[in-house]
Amino acid sequence: MSLMMRLTTALSGRKIGTDRFGNTYYESRRDYLQYGRKRRWVMFAGAPDPTSVPPEWHGWLHHTAATAMSEEKRYPWIAEHRPNPTGTALAWHPAGHDYSGGRRQVTTGDYEAWTPGS
Question: The whole model's pTM is what?
Answer without folding.
Answer: 0.67
